[in-house]
């Protein structure tokens, strides 16, 4: 049986504090990811959370080792609130279903690229500046498996459609008068 050893966790406190400091030297405000394993104790996670809080940064437990992508929800939400300033993340049923499917297919460790409007730091193009008091809505999750990432689609946005068999560029030319033709 594994014994609870909070003193062992405290021995790593200086290392954690230094990593936080190093990230800040580069202008990055980190989120501490607590990679939880089945033999960990909640009290050990709490010590790490307390150290992070003393340093003024968020910490999140991630059980992805045993629970796959679903075990990273707390971490994903912590990062979304840091990067985008959201109060949280709201996953729709289809998004959760897609995440579970991608995880089951073995793609739970792929990097994530957020697909959202370019008009705002939020998912709402009307929220300008650095909005607060909003939730990042994840309405769908897709896998770009060949490219090696998954992408949650946040808010109301269109993704790039597929190309036709005959691209429009094939109709574009310059006529004998130097005018561009074929754009309409």
Brief summary:
The chain is 32% helix and 17% strand. By secondary structure, it is α/β, with parallel strands linked by helices.
How many helices?
6
Strand order of the largest sheet: 3-4-5
Strand content: 15-25%
* Derived structural class: alpha/beta
Write down the Rg: 22 Å
Largest sheet: 3 strands, mixed
**End-to-end gap:** 73 Å
Structure summary, number of beta strands: 7
Mean pLDDT: 87
Unreliable stretches: none
**SSE sequence, one letter per element:** HHEHEHHEHEEEE
Shape: elongated
Helix content class = 25-40%
Descriptive overview:
With 184 residues, the chain is of the alpha/beta class. The protein is 32% helix and 17% strand. It contains 6 helices and 7 strands; from the N terminus they run ααβαβααβαββββ. The strands form 3 sheets. The chain has a 3-stranded mixed sheet. The protein has a two-stranded parallel ribbon with strand order 1-2. A two-stranded antiparallel ribbon has the order 6-7. 18% of the residues are buried. The mean pLDDT is 87.
Keywords:
single chain, 184 residues, alpha/beta, 3-stranded mixed beta sheet, two-stranded parallel ribbon, 32% helix
Furnish the topology, listing elements before pairings.
Elements: H1 6-11, H2 13-25, E1 32-35, H3 42-54, E2 59-62, H4 64-67, H5 73-83, E3 88-91, H6 93-104, E4 135-144, E5 149-154, E6 173-174, E7 180-181
Parallel strand pairs: 1-2, 3-4
Antiparallel strand pairs: 4-5, 6-7
